[in-house]
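May I ask for an example protein's residues together with how it folds?

___
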Amino acid sequence: MPAMNRSVITLPMRRELLAAAGATLAGWPLNPAFAQADAVWPEVSSTLADARLAGTARLRVWGFEVYDAQLWVGPGFRASQFAQFPLALSLRYLRALKGVAIAERSLREMRGIAPIPEAQASQWLSAMTQTFADVQAGDRLTGLHQPAVGARFWLNGQPHGSIADARFSASFFGIWLAQATSEPALRRQLLAGVTP
């Protein structure tokens, strides 16, 4: 295949090249030009005013690719105060996972960021187990953080439950966005296009 002249690669061609390469790969910085050109998922555009893509990342655990993540934010969003702003996080799964396993892992990650009393942990695990469905490769789970309200969830663009607990929502989205996250590189990629 002949070498391409970089100056003649158009934005649509760049999108096709990224898609062919598996969209964004862990470790690659977000290009804001691509972010602005990407379409917003319907569940995001209908619930988050003036949503824009802040960053993307791929989670790998022990060499296994788990999901591609996209963080959507509204105007004025500040990473250091993420829990005070509405935001949406979409995860496109790259492998099948049981909903209960997603809930259990989420709780472990939340506890790694800050202590959670046992009774509260039990309530949150029960709520997540009821809300999170089993996923297959290609499924998209989107969560909306609503400060002082809680979290809403969609599976493949369809409503799939909510947890009306503001503390839960801040803790849950902290899995990806808190300073103490277990995945700091993933956090940096998701927040690459926003104010620190």
